[in-house]
Design a protein that fits this description.
- The protein is an alpha/beta fold and about 240 residues long.
- It has 8 helices and 11 strands.
- The chain is globular.
Length: about 240
């Protein structure tokens, strides 16, 4: 089985909107729904778990009810931090997931679905235990100090920006979350960080889409201008 955890439990305070960014509606459709609708159609995904901000669960359910459902879809309340939210999502399938089952994590702040990249991530997880989609760096990359001055050039071939999804074998990642303390979960902001700390190899798969992350208002404006011409061409 291949599970997709759609992570959307955050509050999105940096955007400055009247609601968390994943629930902002573009053309009267919330951002998360564009992502959900795409994953619902991917043959490489068997089941979807939405990890939602608890205050917005009824809103999410309303949109799920409007979806032509192809796969099993469930909703779980998020936690205090992203890692706690991931743990909640993993716990929700722990009574049925097998050790070799694959769990993918996709942050709703990454408003795209890379079908080919997702397939390659799944194949890499089968071989290495963990994998993530990533945006390779092709521009010169600098290191700077606290005053904003460049201090060094970093070899760009050694750097990759994390993208969605990342994933693992359930039997390897769930025990890590299950045995981690609250302090460890608060400190680790990604599944990849926890995986690396616990000896799971993480293979990087180059993203086939622009790795847009909605954090600030200008990110949202870029998405609005490109949503139908690039990111979700078939979802007008």
């Amino acid at each position: 089985m291949k599970y997709l955890l759609l992570m959307m439990g955050g509050s999105g305070t940096r955007l400055g909107a009247d609601r968390p960014k994943q629930y902002i509606e573009i053309d009267e459709i919330p951002i998360f729904f564009y992502i959900l609708r795409s994953y619902n159609k991917l043959e490489c995904i068997d089941e979807i778990v939405i990890v939602s901000n608890e205050m917005w669960i009824d809103y999410v359910q309303k949109w799920i009810d409007s979806l032509e459902i192809i796969k099993p879809i469930s909703i779980v309340a998020g936690g205090e931090t992203r890692s706690h939210s991931v743990y909640n999502g993993l716990k929700s399938i722990s009574d049925k997931a097998q050790d070799d089952d694959i769990v993918l994590l996709h942050d709703a702040t990454h408003p795209y679905v890379d079908e080919q990249g997702t397939i390659e991530v799944i194949n890499a997880i089968k071989e290495y235990g963990g994998a993530t989609l990533g945006a390779f760096q092709y521009d010169t990359v600098y290191k700077m100090n606290d005053e904003g001055f460049i201090t060094d050039v970093i070899p760009r071939q050694e750097l990759v920006a994390g993208a969605s999804p990342e994933g693992f074998k359930f039997g390897e990642i769930f025990p890590i979350y299950d045995q981690s303390t609250d302090e460890e979960l608060e400190r680790m902001t990604s599944g990849g960080a926890l995986a690396l700390e616990n000896g799971i190899k993480m293979k990087t798969i180059e993203a086939n889409v622009i790795n847009l992350k909605i954090t600030y208002p200008h990110d949202l404006q870029i998405f609005k201008k490109t949503i139908h011409s690039y990111f979700f061409e078939s979802q007008k």
